[in-house]
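Query structure, 99 tokens:
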């Protein structure tokens, strides 16, 4: 099956792997922020010194269609994304102030 559009790289919960020790150090994804958890979770992971590795291989495909949540709930998702970014930035600032 050939995609209709170009395949682009990106982070997704679909293909995320994390070692148990790292997960226990960083904590679970914030379930109160449903859609942009790939901002808040990885942001916290970076604050804890974890690194992100992106594979060259395609490990998952996402089908976009008119009924996708992003197309139906763009405003709510934008608000959640801003909240996730704010939390990551506040955590980083707090950490820098302790140094």
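Result returned for the query:
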């Amino acid at each position: 099956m050939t995609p209709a559009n170009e395949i682009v790289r990106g982070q997704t919960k679909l293909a995320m792997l994390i070692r148990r020790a790292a997960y226990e150090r960083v904590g679970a994804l914030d379930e109160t922020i449903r859609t942009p958890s790939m901002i808040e979770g990885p942001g916290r992971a970076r604050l804890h010194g974890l690194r992100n590795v992106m594979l060259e291989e395609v490990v998952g495909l996402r089908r976009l269609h008119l009924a996708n949540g992003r197309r139906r709930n763009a405003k709510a998702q934008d608000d959640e994304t801003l909240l996730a970014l704010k939390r990551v930035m506040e955590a980083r600032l707090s950490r820098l102030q302790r140094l």
